[in-house]
Amino acid sequence: MKSRIPVILLACGSFNPITNMHMRLFEVARDHLHQTGRYQVIEGIMSPVNDNYGKKGLVSARHRIAMAKLALETSDWIRVDPWESKQDTWTETVKVLRGNSHKSYRSGDPTYRGLDLAQLQLKQALLARLGLQVINPLQSSLGVHKSRLFLNQKVPGLPELKLLCGADFLQTFKTPNLWKEEDIQEIVEKFGLVCISRAGSDPSQYIKDSALLTQFQHNIFLVKEWIQNEISATQIRSALCRGLSVKYLLPDSVIAYIAQHNIYTEESERRNEGDLLQPLKLHSTGVTPLSD
Ligand SMILES: Nc1ncnc2c1ncn2[C@@H]1O[C@H](COP(=O)(O)OP(=O)(O)OP(=O)(O)O)[C@@H](O)[C@H]1O
Ligand SMILES: NC(=O)c1ccc[n+]([C@@H]2O[C@H](COP(=O)(O)O)[C@@H](O)[C@H]2O)c1
Ligand SMILES: [Zn+2]
Fold first, then answer.
1. I need a surface site. Which of 123, 143, 153, 177 has the fewest CB within 10 A?
2. Which neighbouring-strand residues pair with 162?
């Protein structure tokens, strides 16, 4: 039997707050990749955006991370990575991907959870063949010293890192000055994209409309979620501000955290009001902010 390619899924976003649907994205994507018969998803990573992103109503990453950690306590394969939120400023998504691909080879990283010793030894042999110095080879994960091996360099047997998103995220690729063309190319060419359907977005049409996305569509997985779920974090925040129930849309632990710290208020909703998103500030002059 042909062995499957290990995959790590990375989702970037505000997660303001994390919703049940954010976690569903990972489950739906994993099922889809497994059903292809070619992939084995070994880990999911959620990377909440930096506070300097500039999005209206964005509360502190400290709270967004705490809520995501509480929500993911029930998952045995998805974790939160605070790296992006801890940088001094907002970071381009492609750099978050590069950062995670590099980190995955540091000693102690749980990237290889779920792989048995024989598979680990195979990885070790592959890394050695690439001239990389392997430390503590018999530990449960591989440690690589002074190496610069990135998961965007597809090496047979090594995990591939893919960006996971909803269809509205893919649609933002065509917003003028929001994304650099070379970043989009690197994401779809070197990493790959798993995109889950969302009402109001037609991702196959965006792909057809874009020469770049069409060129790399073999690396873009469009996944249809048949059990449609239109939870949106913005709607959750407005419900909370109006004192309405959000039970069964978010885990109870997250609802309790929001109440305890009084996170979403009319005042928090006014944060960054009228500001340009940081990527628009960096890449443009005089462009109106996204309404999302
Ligand atoms: N209901 C949904 N269906 C499909 N994808 C979703 C859904 N909700 C969120 N996503 C995806 O999750 C990622 C993170 O999204 P984000 O944090 O912006 O949540 P959101 O619910 O869209 O929040 P907001 O309403 O504040 O924009 C994005 O890739 C987004 O497309
Ligand atoms: N040029 C870029 O790399 C770029 C541009 C816009 C948004 N993003 C990212 O996409 C995500 C969008 O999140 P929201 O859907 O919550 O706005 C964030 O993680 C943000 O950092 C990246
Ligand atoms: Zn959104």
1. 153
2. 9
CA distance 214 to 232: 29
Tokens of 119: 């598979």
- How far is Cα 280 from Cα 291, in angstroms, rounded to an integer? 13
Task: Give yes or no for residue 183 CB within 6 A of ligand 2.
Answer: yes
Q: How far apart are CA 10 and CA 48, in angstroms?
A: 11
Tell me the two tokens of residue 185.
């190319």
Which CA distances in Å does 179 have to 87, 172, 222, 279, 281?
19, 8, 20, 7, 11
Long-range contacts from 282-291, C-beta under 8 angstroms, 24+ separation = 283/177, 283/178, 283/179, 283/180, 284/176, 284/177, 287/176, 287/177, 289/54, 289/56, 290/172, 290/175, 290/178
| pLDDT score recorded for residue 244 | 97
**Which atom from ligand 1 is nearest to the alpha carbon of 230?**
1
Secondary structure string (H, E, C) spanning 3-51: CCEEEEEEEEECCCCCCHHHHHHHHHHHHHHHHCCCEEEEEEEEEECCH
Distance, CA 14 to ligand 3 centroid (Å)?
7
Low-confidence stretches of the chain (pLDDT < 70) are: 1, 101-156, 285-292
* Cβ atoms within 10 Å, residue 32: 18
Distance 292 CA to ligand 3 centre (A): 6
pLDDT digits (tens, 9 = 90+) for 253-288: 999 999 999 999 999 999 999 999 999 999 875 444
- Whole-number Å distance, alpha carbon 128 to ligand 2 midpoint, is 36
Q: Which of 53, 98, 183 to mutate to test the pocket of ligand 2 (most atoms within 8 A of CB)?
A: 53
pLDDT for residue 141: 37
Q: What is the ipTM of this complex?
A: 0.98
Q: Please tell me what DSSP assigns to residue 251.
A: -
Using an 8 Å Cβ cutoff, are 201 and 168 in contact? Answer: yes
